[in-house]
Write a structure and sequence with these properties.
There is one protein chain. With 75 residues, the chain is α+β, with helices and mostly antiparallel strands. It has one domain. It contains 1 helix and 5 strands. It has a 3-stranded antiparallel sheet. A two-stranded antiparallel ribbon has the order 4-5. The protein is flat and about 35 Å long. The two termini are 14 Å apart.
């Protein structure tokens, strides 16, 4: 989860995961109460980013039985 490290996570950790071929990364933005889901890794970063807010269901591509509404994280 990211609060004070959000910029570092976006600019360092997420691109590092992409370079190593991690298929999906979920970054929890505590101040923004959103979840950023990065998919389709490449050496230059992730090709797909989608932000989810309360009321939007997120389903993992790798583990389809995992589904989450971000509001559950910010209660």
């Amino acid at each position: 989860m990211a609060d004070t490290s959000l910029t570092y996570d976006r600019t360092v950790k997420v691109p590092l995961n992409a370079r190593h071929g991690i298929p999906e990364v979920w970054l929890i933005d505590l101040p923004g109460e959103t979840v950023e889901v990065y998919r389709e890794p490449s050496p230059d970063g992730y090709r797909h980013l989608r932000r989810y807010g309360p009321g939007q269901r997120i389903q993992s591509l790798r583990v389809p039985e995992v589904e989450l509404d971000p509001v559950e994280l910010f209660r």
